[in-house]
Inverse folding.
């Protein structure tokens, strides 16, 4: 069985499974962390701003922006792709965008987009794989746990971690974390 697949007696650390150079791993982790934080906070309405010595966090209805000296994270539940998302290079499954995050750190960018679809997790994972490989991506890893599938893909321009899982009773969520390959 290939290293990192379900059934290993010892799980492979994420930093050994991601096909990116060591300086890209913090960026990918930041994108995933920001997406999670933004998803948790974006359900709150209204407008707020919090300023500390290290960061400025502002919330305007479904949009959250976190600014630090290291970079900026923007999250939205406005059902649109985040600013700068490489839509021409990264095809997405048809569905409803429920969360979008853009992160900028120094000269690096990354994005996370979460979409819901009516397709089953297996069908959605197959469609994501087919769309991305047709667009020139190579699959570098797959974890399939039935109702939850993860795909690691790479092209000459981008690396993608795609996660597919149940979302509620009748929908499936597809999450794309995209970082430049450079």
């Amino acid at each position: 069985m290939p290293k990192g697949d379900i059934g290993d007696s010892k799980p492979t650390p994420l930093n050994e499974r991601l096909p990116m150079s060591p300086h890209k791993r913090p960026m990918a982790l930041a994108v995933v962390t920001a997406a999670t934080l933004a998803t948790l906070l974006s359900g709150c309405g209204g407008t707020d701003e919090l300023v500390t010595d290290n960061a400025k966090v502002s919330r305007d209805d479904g949009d959250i922006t976190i600014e630090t000296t290291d970079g900026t994270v923007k999250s939205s539940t406005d059902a649109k792709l985040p600013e700068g998302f490489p839509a021409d290079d990264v095809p997405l499954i048809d569905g409803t965008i429920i969360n979008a995050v853009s992160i900028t750190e120094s000269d690096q960018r990354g994005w996370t987009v979460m979409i819901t679809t009516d397709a089953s997790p297996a069908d959605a994972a197959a469609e994501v794989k087919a769309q991305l490989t047709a667009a020139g991506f190579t699959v570098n890893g797959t974890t399939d746990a039935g109702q939850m599938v993860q795909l690691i893909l790479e092209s000459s321009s981008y690396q993608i971690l795609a996660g597919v899982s149940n979302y509620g009773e009748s929908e499936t969520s597809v999450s794309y974390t995209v970082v430049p390959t450079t």
About this structure: The beta strands are 47-51, 56-60, 63-67, 71-76, 96-105, 108-117, 138-144, 148-154, 158-167, 171-180. The longest strand covers residues 96-105. The longest helix spans residues 25-41.
